[in-house]
Design brief:
Layout: H1 4-7, H2 13-22, E1 26-30, H3 34-47, E2 51-55, H4 57-63, H5 65-81, E3 89-96, H6 99-107, E4 112-115, H7 122-138, E5 142-147, E6 151-154, E7 157-159, H8 167-177, E8 181-184, E9 189-190, E10 201-202, E11 209-210, H9 216-225, E12 231-233, H10 241-249, H11 262-269, E13 273-278, H12 280-296, H13 303-326
Parallel strand pairs: 1-2, 1-13, 2-3, 3-4, 4-5, 5-8, 6-9, 8-12, 12-13
Antiparallel strand pairs: 6-7, 10-11
The protein binds zinc ion (ZN).
Zinc ion binds near residues 95, 190, 234, 235 and 277.
Length: about 325
């Protein structure tokens, strides 16, 4: 058993309470590689922001769970070295799909876990979430649950259709499961293709797709029923068109990739939404920089030559999100 406290990590409890009160949201960035980890830590330190570094099942399969755990420990030490004496870094399991996986992560130094029972029948979702909560709270680990289904594909998580969270269920669910935060479905979606062109309208000036708006009425109804309870938005990348254009210009093929407009996420950050998950935007920033670098420098073959601009580009994106979208800067 390794407690996250020994690693210098923190859970989400205090962080979320402050974010709900303060009208901002904590960034939850997925990571798989050292360059992503470095970019996340540099961005968080420079902006004095708390940060959630999250690991999906896909990341565990790609990088190995043990390595990611030590990278999170390294992230804390790296943040200190960069001049942040008390970094607020959470190591979070994204989309845990069983009690056993959540337990394994809790036993191995994660400070927060998600149990995603959103595809299960309601009572089963409550029962397993509650079991995870009972185990997690023994070690002061916080638990995120999910109600409602997001559409889209990301790692092993996929659903063809979304089902908005039903506001009438949230009070009963949060009370009986004992979860610390709740991921809801109000129209965000996983991946870089959040909406089909048919679901969108086209901006007549730019020809770009404009996605359907988030269901703020449902969010506000949920806030009314569980005032101050920490709400989480998954699938909240904005799929920046300049990165998509760069990828397409240098040999990529991402037609009609579309995300959530940042103005809407900014508005959501001011509500009880206190954790916003961003993964695809980091992937796009990395790939755009690598494609551009290799196209412009065909003789380069040292990975450091193209991973350095990739890291810089991700860091720029993370800082932009923290300062201009989530408002979590200067909160340490
Ligand atoms: Zn998700």
């Amino acid at each position: 058993m390794t407690s996250y406290k020994e690693l210098g990590l923190v859970n989400t409890r205090e962080m979320f309470a402050k974010a709900v009160k303060g009208g901002y949201a904590i960034p939850a960035f997925n990571f798989n590689t050292m360059e992503q980890m470095q970019a996340i830590v540099q961005a968080a330190v420079e902006t004095k922001s708390p940060v959630i570094m999250q690991v999906s099942k896909g990341a565990r399969n790609y990088a190995n769970g043990t390595i990611l755990r030590y990278m999170a420990q390294g992230a804390v030490e790296y943040a200190k070295e960069l001049g942040c004496p008390n970094p607020q870094i959470v190591l979070h399991l994204d989309h845990g799909d069983s009690f056993e996986l959540c337990k394994e992560c809790i036993d191995n130094g994660f400070s927060s876990v998600m149990f995603d029972g959103s595809a299960l029948p309601y009572e089963e979702n409550i029962a397993i979430t509650k079991k995870v909560v009972e185990y997690a709270h023994k070690y002061d680990v916080t638990v995120e649950a999910e109600l409602g289904v997001l559409a889209g594909v990301e790692d092993e998580v996929s659903a063809a259709e979304s089902h908005y969270t039903r506001p009438e269920e949230v009070e009963d669910f949060s009370k009986r499961s004992g979860c610390d935060s709740l991921a809801i479905s109000i129209g965000t979606s996983h991946g870089a293709y959040k909406f089909t062109p048919e679901q969108c309208t086209r901006d007549p000036k730019t020809g770009k797709l404009v996605p359907p708006p988030l269901a703020f009425d449902i969010l506000h109804e949920i806030e009314k029923r569980i005032p101050g309870f920490p709400i989480v938005l998954h699938g909240s990348s904005s799929v920046p068109q300049d990165e998509v254009d760069t990828i397409n210009k240098y040999g990529g093929k991402l037609p009609d990739a579309v995300g959530i407009p940042e103005e809407q996420l900014r508005e959501a950050s001011k509500s009880a939404v206190c954790k916003i998950n961003i993964d695809s935007d980091s992937r796009l920033a990395m790939t755009a920089a690598i494609r551009k670098h290799l196209a412009e420098n065909p003789s380069h073959f040292d990975p450091r030559q193209y991973l350095k601009p990739a890291r810089e580009n991700m860091k720029k994106m993370y800082i932009h999100k923290i300062v201009n979208v989530l408002g979590s800067d200067n909160k340490l």
